[in-house]
Amino acid sequence: MLRQRVITAVILMAGLLAALVWLPPIGFDLLLLLVVLAGAWEWTTLAGTSLAHLRIGFQSVLLLSCGLLMQQSEHWLQGVLLAAVLWWPFALYCIMRQPRSVWLLHQPSGLLLVGWLVLVPSWLAVYWMQRLPGERLFHVLWFVALVAAADTGAYFAGKAFGRHKLAPLVSPNKTWEGFFGGMVATALVAVAGAKLGPTAALHDVNVVLVITAALLMAVYSVVGDLFESLLKRTQNLKDSGNVLPGHGGVMDRLDSITAALPLFVLLLLQVTGLSS
Question: In sequence order, which residues have a C-beta less than 8 Å from that of residue 39 and are 6 or more positions away?
Fold first, then answer.
């Protein structure tokens, strides 16, 4: 299973890098929009409905939303990203309530709204990030490296030292030791990117601020992972889909990314003062 996961991850990373290098920003936007639509299809199952007309309707709403919001001002974009950032503390509340039920988890219409908050702001974050001054390739890959560090650090630290369960009723394999291992790995990647990367506005940012921002991002990525696990457990699903060998579905790869991405872009804007 690990070998299959690694092979799939390498292929996905190679595809991402090729798309970033060879596609113009609008081409990359459209490619990611297809990924978001695939994630939206799976999200309807996580929300407790598999009716074809609801799936297509949900995809249509997301497509229309992205098209409309990309034409709005930075003020609008920041508002949408902030709304997504503010959602995740409530997701953490849902996780911490287990095994006590939370009404939202059994409301398909409410979960579809959550799906909008998860997917649309994430796409807008990449859309905006590509248009910031500086290195477009670096910003995207630095974010991917941060999330990958959180995931990989947690996996290996959990394997080596894991003893205490993080959220046994939601994701039994996750441990506190893995969580802290992911935090350390994320902090290291954050400092390396800020100090050695090509974005000059980051070079003089206080290292404590960089680490604090990275740790907050790592927490968000874990919450995103756990919340999707909670939805799968609620719907008695092993994976959100089966299109990615060794990983499951699209949302199984996007869960931590969609949670951390809006926060990353907002922090990048605040810390560097960059603007499109």
Answer: 119, 250, 251, 254, 258
Residue range 74-123, pLDDT digits in tens: 888 899 999 999 999 999 999 999 888 788 888 999 999 999 999 999 99
Return d(Cα 131, Cα 107) in angstroms, integer. Answer: 37
Structure letter (DSSP) for residue 244: B
Answer yes or no: are the C-beta atoms of 223 and 231 closer than 8 Å. Answer: no
Residues 152-163: tens digit of each pLDDT: 999 899 988 988
- DSSP states of 181-195 as a string? HHHHHHHHHHHHHHH
pLDDT digits (tens, 9 = 90+) for 244-275: 665 678 898 888 999 999 999 999 888 776 66
Instruction: Give residue 65's pLDDT band: very low, low, confident or very high (50, 70, 90).
Output: very high
With contact defined as beta carbons under 8 Å apart, do 149 and 182 qualify? yes
Domain edges within the chain: 2-272
Q: What's the token pair of residue 62? A: 């997301």
Helix (H/G/I), strand (E/B), else coil: 165: strand
Distance separating alpha carbons of residues 272 and 205, to the nearest angstrom:
8
